[in-house]
Amino acid sequence: MRVGGLMCVTVRFESGTRIEPWDPTERTITVPAGLSPLLTVTAVRAVLAELCISQPPFEALCFCGETIETLPRVPEQRSTQVVSNAP
Ligand SMILES: [Zn+2]
After folding, report:
1. Looking at the predicted structure, is the pLDDT value of residue 81 above 70?
2. Does some domain include residue 8?
3. According to the lineage, what is the superkingdom (predicted)?
4. Which of 11, 17, 51, 54 is the most buried (most CB within 10 A)?
């Protein structure tokens, strides 16, 4: 979903030692794979708070006001999805 030409924040899970928590280009928050759901939400909220997006107590909200999905998706071959910049 896009709001005002801005992509929504998405969460990505990655294993590795060098993780960039926030990618402003892709508007992606990266958390270590294997975090519990609670810690994942906590980590995502921390990044969002750093971005000055006020957060409710128990969930992570995108700047557009939508709840951000913080559960790892079951792999279902969606990685080829292309986000078009065309109007
Ligand atoms: Zn959004």
Report:
1. no
2. yes
3. Bacteria
4. 11
